[in-house]
Design brief:
Blueprint lengths: L12 E3 L12 E6 L8 H6 L2 E5 L5 E6 L6 H59 L3 H14 L4 H13 L3 H14 L4 H13 L3 H14 L4 H13 L3 H13 L5 H10 L1
Length: 264
């Protein structure tokens, strides 16, 4: 008779060799039942966190899913992710700030250089004006206006030089521009009043003289100019008053104008 193998006690479980889990890729442990009885139900397997499946020969196998622990490398990547992102953001912000600071510094230096150039040109133009070099003054004022067209002093200065050269209409254009930029520019007001007087605009001229003398009353040239207009308009008393004040200020020619007004 063939030798009988000793029976295993019922419900004895032994681990089977590891192999891929049924229907999934998770790491698992497989246990085979040597007993043919249905001792484990699918409900019990679910309750225990496992699954019951059958192989091709009808043998039940219970799969207990084990938790998959993150590897050391994976956990390191996850932990380092936010920190790396924060570092990159800080580096980008630092680079952007450095770029903005560099641009601001360059713009400031450019503005300072331009201001210095304008100041030097205005000084040279003023010197030429005082010396009666109208062409030289016009050239220097034009140099300023080529890069800074809204400088009231340059517009007024060039307008004044053009007036003294006899270019009245061109002078009026510059003087109008100066007073748009700076409505209380004294030199522009006085010179524009003279231009208007030459062009026959008596009301416009006296308006400019009035504003100029309101801002700076002790201006002998403006007083004489306004006095002449008053005399033309028939205001003899007003003309004499302006000429007297100009004479007291020592303005050249005021005394002769006063004598003429008193004798008329």
């Amino acid at each position: 008779q063939p030798e009988r193998r000793p029976e295993r006690p019922p419900f004895l479980w032994e681990p089977s060799p590891p192999r891929p889990a049924c229907g999934g890729g998770t790491t698992s442990a497989m246990f085979c039942c040597s007993c043919k009885e249905d001792v484990r139900k699918e409900a019990e397997a679910d309750k225990d966190g496992g699954e019951v499946c059958r192989d091709g020969q009808g043998e039940e196998k219970v799969e207990l899913a084990l938790p998959v622990l993150p590897t050391k490398e994976a956990s390191g990547d996850v932990a380092a992710g936010p920190a790396a992102s924060s570092s990159a953001d800080k580096a980008a912000a630092k680079a952007e700030k450095a770029r903005a600071d560099k641009e601001a510094k360059a713009a400031k230096q450019k503005a300072m250089d331009k201001e210095k150039q304008v100041s030097e040109c205005l000084e040279a133009a003023s010197k030429a004006f005082e010396e009666g070099d109208w062409d030289g003054a016009i050239a220097k004022y034009s140099e300023v206006l080529s890069t800074s067209p809204d400088v009231a002093a340059a517009l007024a200065g060039r307008g004044g030089a053009l007036l003294r050269k006899g270019q009245v209409k061109e002078a009026l254009f510059d003087l109008d521009g100066a007073l748009k930029v700076e409505p209380e520019c004294l030199y522009a007001l006085r010179d524009r009043a003279e231009v208007r007087l030459k062009l026959g605009d008596l009301d416009g001229a006296i308006e400019d003289y009035n504003k100029k003398l309101t801002l700076a009353p002790a201006d002998g040239k403006a007083l004489c100019g306004r006095g002449e207009i008053k005399l033309k308009k028939g205001d003899k008393a007003g003309a004499i008053s302006d000429f007297k004040f100009a004479t007291q200020l020592g303005w050249g020619g005021a005394k002769e104008l006063l004598s003429k007004a008193q004798g008329s």
